[in-house]
Specification:
This protein is α/β, with parallel strands linked by helices. 25% of the residues lie in helices and 17% in strands. The strands form two sheets. It has a twelve-stranded parallel beta sheet with strand order 10-11-12-13-14-15-16-17-18-19-20-21, with helices on one face. It is globular, with a radius of gyration of 27 Å. One of its GO terms (biological process) is SCF-dependent proteasomal ubiquitin-dependent protein catabolic process. Pfam families: F-box-like (PF12937).
Length: 611
Amino acid sequence: MLTLMSMFYYICLRRRSRSGTRGEALTSRRAVESGQRAVLPVSVEVEQYAKEVLDFSSHYGSENSMSYTMWNLAGVPNVYPSSGDFTQTAVFRAYGKWWEQCASAPPPFRRTPKGFHSQDYIELGFEEPVYPTAVDVLETYYPGAIVQIMACSHNPFSQNPPTDVRWEVLWSGEPTKVLTPQARQFSPNIKHINFPTNLLRIEVNSSLLDYYTELDAVILRGVKERPMLARYKMPIIDINDLSDSEEELSDLGGPFRQGGEAKRTGNGYFDKLPYELIQLILSHLTLPDLCRLAQSCKLLHQHCCDPLQYTQLSLQPYWGRLSDASLGHLQSRCTLLQRLNLSWIGNRGALTLTGFSSFMKACGQSLGSLELSCCHFLNEPCLEVISQTCPGLQELNLSSCDRLQPQAFTHIFKLTRLRRLVLYRTKIEQTAILSVLTFCTELRHLNLGSCVRIDDYDVVASMLAARCYSLRSLDLWRCRNLTDRGLAELVTGCRMLEELDLGWCPTLQSSTGCFQHLARNLPRLRKLFLTANRTVCDSDVEELAASCPSLQHLDILGTRLVSPASLKKLLQACPRLLLLDLSFCSQIDMRVVQELSGLFPNVAIKKSFTQ
């Protein structure tokens, strides 16, 4: 009995001592038992702001400026403690649930863990590696989006190649909606880790927010010497501590290496259930649970390794743990794979061309959807492998793969069955995109937002009009050279368009009649972003009201020529309208917004402020 209690105590102690090694935990236990006090080293706390922005998934700003970009998070605060909408802050591309409701949004993946909330991220490098004692994030507008803060063992400024890169969660929580948009300093209680770090990753989920969240600076506090507890406090033993820790599940390939060949001692009546019913039950498990269950008995090993359990596979929630070995262990189970999400995975050497190519050659034949957002391991040979091994691919997301060289995109045109292509913040050039449009005529959704290397968007618009008649959504966010001529050709040839993002396209002028021509030619339009176009006027809004009754999302931020009267006509004529952004519209003050909101309570009318 004494031995059993000792084992129970040791297991719980191990779960509670995740901030140190096993040896330190046992040393602390002996210190408690002997009444001795551990030595507490004296160390001065270091406070430092981010030295450099290393990576991020999206931002509101342009690739060629500092306004609303993630690069504003480097250095000391620019705005805090002021509140409001300021160009000197870091702003992510999206907020709320509007984007999830659009036709261009892909359906969610099955088996996504309930605890995975992250939608965007930013990685920050600091000057000095420290053992973190606190992390402070200065939020200046609509706070509450941060859902996870992580630390990395790798020094991003080291000249040596990364080896044995380890990520540790300092803090995590669920997305929240703060009652006020006012600035605040977010300082969660963080977990202590057993390695020094100067690389932090902040992950956000803005789905509950009423407007764009804005971040001003991040402060990392810590000590250079490893802190030791003065006295190890006896943990409160909880039966929940007997569950496997996140650290012990860090390698998804582990269960496969163990083989799962446990002796079968009888399954009661479980093996008498129909095969299809067992498969249905197992379909509700997360991927790590499925891997563990495969080790329990031969029957469940057979079910857990059935390729039908892996027709959809999202590895994004496990981005920090995956490697070539992980894909290798999953490879034999993914022969019927149809949808694959590898977003955020493989950076800093975790995935290689060899591991990726092997997996794609074995599992790409049936693949219809491939998500590769922010995958910086990708290179030209990787895209060549995709074009050769995925003949039926219909959806490809390369969002923010900004380190992929221009020549790599020349392989995309071989995927002639593409229907959805996301190239946001990539280095694709005009020749490559014209080749894609020439051969991929079945395109339904195309995102070319912030693709700054395309020289002439009028030529691209003309090709879209000539080849892609079935186009449903087009994102041209921050394209710098689309003119009224190109827009006219586009809306004349692609009359099935339901979503069109022309935000921050400065060369479009309302005086040419291009926006009224757009409205008359796109009666199915549901989403239109004319963000920061100061020339949008009452005539444009009234034409939208007359020609686009299905309109749901309209952004005319920054216009100076729209009056309350035309907005009232729009709201009356478009009963499905859900979002109307009137921020920085000089003729529309808060009194008008409140009046319109009272008359049309189902519409989220946005009006940002600065103070």
